Amino acid sequence: MVTDDQIQEAMRFTFDRLKIVVEPSGATGLAAILSGAAGRLPSRVGVIISGGNIDAGRFADVCGTAT
């Protein structure tokens, strides 16, 4: 399980590092990996990051403030 803050951080990560806009539900898997909630992982992991169905204003609200 991941928190809303962890999902928002994953959204910021994808935008800052990958230049990809992703909606909250599409960032959940990445949030689990980044936060450690996915548990112990092998050295190579694949994660599906999907969905850009988020309003520009809402995306700015979510990603505009650092935690």
Automatic annotation (TrEMBL):
This is Threonine dehydratase. It comes from the Bacteria. InterPro entries: TrpB-like_PALP_sf. GO terms for biological process: alpha-amino acid metabolic process.
